[in-house]
Amino acid sequence: QWVKDGIMIAFRTGMRPGEIYALKWSDISLSVGYISVQRAISRAGSATKETKTPNGTRRIDIDQKLTSYLRDMPSRNNSIYVFPAPPEGHHEYRVPWNISKKLKEMCVRAGIPPRNFYSLRHSHATILFELGVHPKIVQERLGHSSILITSETYSHITPTIQQQAVDALKNI
Predict the structure, then answer these.
(1) How many CB atoms lie within 10 A of CB 165?
(2) Distance CA 110, CA 107 (A)
C-alpha cells in the first residue's frame, strides 16, 4: 500500500520520492488543499534533511482527487509521518530506496513497460506543460532552483506543444 500511496502523491504533485516519504501529517492541509514540502530523506544515512535546494521548500496546491485520497488514507500507527517505518525499520519514517524496484515489478505484472519512480515526476511536469500551464508554475511545483533547469529538463516536449502556439495565432 505504501508504494501505491506514494505513486498517487508523486503523480499528482511531482514531488521527489525523498520528499514524499518524509511527509508529516502536519505538512498537509486537507481543508485548504495543499502539501507543504519541508524536508526530504537523504540518501546519505537515510536521515531527514532540508530539501535539495532552498526552492525545494515549497507549497504545492493539490486537487480534490488527491485531497480525497489523502483523507481516506489511514493514519498508520498514529505516527506523525504519512509513511511510518515498517516494524523492522530503523527510523520513524519509511525509507523508500527500493521504491523504483517495486514500481518496476508492478509495471511488469500489469503488462506495461517498466518505469522508475522519477517517471511519475516527469509525467506530472509533461502533462502540465501539455495542458498549457506556465513554466514558472511547473518550476515551483517541482522545486527546481531556476526556471532554466525546468526548461532544459523538459525542452524535449516543446515540439509537441508547438501546435498550441500555431492554434493561438490562427484567430489573430
Answers:
(1) 9
(2) 5
